[in-house]
Amino acid sequence: MPPFVFPAPATPTLPVLGDAAAFPVRRILCVGRNYAAHRREMGGDDREPPFFFSKPADAVVSGMKVPFPSRTEELHHEVELVIALGAGGEAVSADQALSLVFGYATGVDLTRRDLQTAAKAKGQPWDAAKGFDASAPISPIRRWSGPPPTGAIRLWVNDALKQEGEMADMIWGVAEIIAEASSLWRLAAGDLIFTGTPEGVGPLGIGDRVRGEIERVGDVAFTIGERR
């Protein structure tokens, strides 16, 4: 292999609960509008299937402070179950899909809502609205085997409950999401998949304290810092 023209960037990583080794992040896929109530909240139709978008791997952040991003006045929170893959494949069946799972985490899909709204109105991509720096705060990953997590998913802002739902309310379940993603991309170890958010998404401001929680999976907590 020839030498690099400059040092290769470090691989983004996430901590793993109870493990000194870190989880290397390859890429981040996200499912849009996977809870019926949120779909209606955002002006969609229950009959429309969920869809995918992506964030860059270096959008992950596991620190306690997240900067308020540039070029937006409407930063919104969306708490989600995150699937962490420990193996990959292509055209994986729903029956095989859970064998790819390394574990799960609690994540927050931060969104520049004003940029997203403007892009949607013009039929343009959402990359700037979803894939900006530090747009994916994620808890440590909890190793998991067997059926996916069930139970409540919640998010608080300054101790006020803003989002609450049940993972049983997802339109597509975990196995279906993995199978569908594998029909569009060759999945691999290190991939993360955000699985959609319940209703109640809303704005965040500088100084706001955010905490997301999924039963038996974990918590993610951070403060919105100064505008970068």
Describe the structure.
A hairpin with a 2-residue loop joins strand 13 and strand 14. This protein has one domain: Fumarylacetoacetase-like, C-terminal domain (Fumarylacetoacetate hydrolase, domain 2), CATH 3.90.850.10. By secondary structure, the chain is of the alpha+beta class. The termini are far apart. The chain is built from five helices and 18 strands. It is globular and about 40 Å long. The strands form five sheets. It has a six-stranded mixed beta sheet, covered by helices on one side. Strands 6-18-17-13-14 form a five-stranded mixed beta sheet, with no helix packed on it.
Record the SSE blueprint.
Elements: E1 13-16, E2 19-24, E3 27-32, H1 36-41, E4 51-55, E5 60-61, E6 65-68, E7 75-77, E8 79-85, H2 94-97, E9 101-108, E10 111-112, H3 113-122, H4 127-130, E11 136-137, E12 142-143, E13 152-157, E14 160-166, H5 174-184, E15 191-194, E16 202-204, E17 209-214, E18 218-227
Parallel strand pairs: 3-15, 5-11, 6-18
Antiparallel strand pairs: 1-2, 3-4, 7-10, 7-16, 8-9, 8-15, 9-12, 13-14, 13-17, 17-18
In short:
The protein is of the alpha+beta class. The chain contains five helices and 18 strands.
Supply database-style keywords.
6-stranded mixed sheet, 5-stranded mixed sheet, 228 residues, alpha+beta, globular, Fumarylacetoacetate hydrolase, domain 2, single chain, 5 helices, 38% strand
